[in-house]
Amino acid sequence: MKLESLEKDHYYHIYNRGINGCNIYNSDENKRYFLQLTGKYLNEKANISAYALLDNHFHFLIQVNCKTEEITQAFSNLFNSYSKAFNKQNNRTGSLFEKHFKRKKIDTEAYFKTVFCYIHHNPIKDWEHYTFSSFHYYMNENTPNYFSLDKTYSLKLFDDINNLKYMHNQFKDEDLQGFENLAGQETKEPEGFKPNTIIKDKFFNYINQLQDTITSKLEEVDGKAKFQEDLWDRPEGGGGRTRVIENGNVFEKGGVNISGVHGKLPDSMQKYFGVEDADFFACGLSLVLHPTNPMVPTVHANWRYFEMYDKDGNIVDQWFGGGQDLTPYYLFEEDAKHFHQICKTACDKHNPEFYPKYKARCDEYFYNAHRNEGRGLGGLFFDYCKATDEMNMQNWYDFVTEVGDSFLEAYVPIVEKRKTLEFTIAQRDWQEIRRGRYVEFNLVHDKGTLFGLKTNGRIESILMSLPPHVQWVYDHHPEVGSEEEKLIKVLQNPVDWV
């Protein structure tokens, strides 16, 4: 769509919102800074007759005082300067505003009056006293601290201040027809989040909170060991928070890590995705727990989000991925059924087709093809969950966080039931042999390990998933009819547990 040029001496309605409806102002200070930059870049280039700043969008009514190229560049400088500051403050990357700010030429006095009233009515609640709109400045002789508010033309059209106020009070919802709803559709947000925040910011906040919840509960279950925390930075952009637990009553080694990394997508990954000159943002929580007792299964879980940008910072692709899976050393069928039932319950809340679909993908993905056996008893695995007609990105966010929230319910009851069972040295040896198969999968087949290594991720965090004690025994086969052989047979032929 061709954008309308901003011509000197003409009036325009200028407006835009955050990309995907995200917040562009998280505080009053953000709004004040935006107005400060407005004065810096637009003074002498435009007369501002009206404005309103809402959390996720803004409106201006202006008259252009300079050449088209100059006013266009002034707006570009305003938005770029603010976006850089906002992104730095909120540790985010990519576009903040929707591409190309909107502009509509005001070609009649009646249209000017309508836009003027519409802008001031944008803060629906207590619009007459709203701090970040120009209306209250018309009701007194003050003007914003950041720029001069041009009241001359407005007061001329409305005759006087009393008529201006009267016309605003008469403004009705039906007068809004033909105006774009910049606030976006109202959605039910997860507790603790502000509405209309960008998906990646919400998800990054979510995994930060989930890490705290999971590590706190696991320390309670272990009763001895505490997680050691390690904060790290990635030179190319971003970083993470690694938490490792070792030598506890229950957990011999485990990690619950979060990361949020960004920057230029490495050449190897650009080839993998079939793109050129792309930037990326990726965040996620990844955990692996290796218990001491071979009767307690190892568990793995991962929930992640990825965005890719073009050279202008626009999102060109985005998706969620993740899952959770169980790797026992001895088969307790009731444990397998419990774990899978929790996974199914979480999936069914969003789509009854998700559990069988993602359970099958898990069986397929966590498979040691060179051994002709599964790594464990599976669970859920989903990847490249992108927006469709049936599932937008908010829907996917709701689904992935549902699965994340189900993890402790799926795993902790199993640990509590098995952690005090007695075991022999031979059973411990079997555990370490099976751990060798776990290592083989992670180093040979796992895409997450590959991505981390090729994006210069933190090696200690990537290889946290490897157990501390492992055995590789030449041509080992379990005794016929043993509990160990029973497990192998199940790993060779996936079971529908629920």
Automatic annotation (TrEMBL):
Domain of life: Bacteria
An annotated Gene Ontology molecular function: coproporphyrinogen oxidase activity
Pathway: Porphyrin-containing compound metabolism; protoporphyrin-IX biosynthesis; protoporphyrinogen-IX from coproporphyrinogen-III (O2 route): step 1/1
GO cellular component: cytoplasm
Keyword flag Oxidoreductase: yes
GO annotation terms (biological process): DNA transposition; protoporphyrinogen IX biosynthetic process
Domain Transposase IS200-like: 7-122
The protein's enzyme class: oxidoreductase
Pfam families referenced in this protein's UniProt entry, alphabetically: Coprogen_oxidas
Keywords: Heme biosynthesis, Oxidoreductase, Porphyrin biosynthesis
Enzyme Commission number(s): 1.3.3.3
PANTHER family reported for this sequence: COPROPORPHYRINOGEN III OXIDASE, MITOCHONDRIAL, OXYGEN-DEPENDENT COPROPORPHYRINOGEN-III OXIDASE, MITOCHONDRIAL
Entry similarity comment: Belongs to the aerobic coproporphyrinogen-III oxidase family.
UniProt subunit comment: Homodimer.
Protein name listed in UniProt: coproporphyrinogen oxidase
The encoding gene: hemF
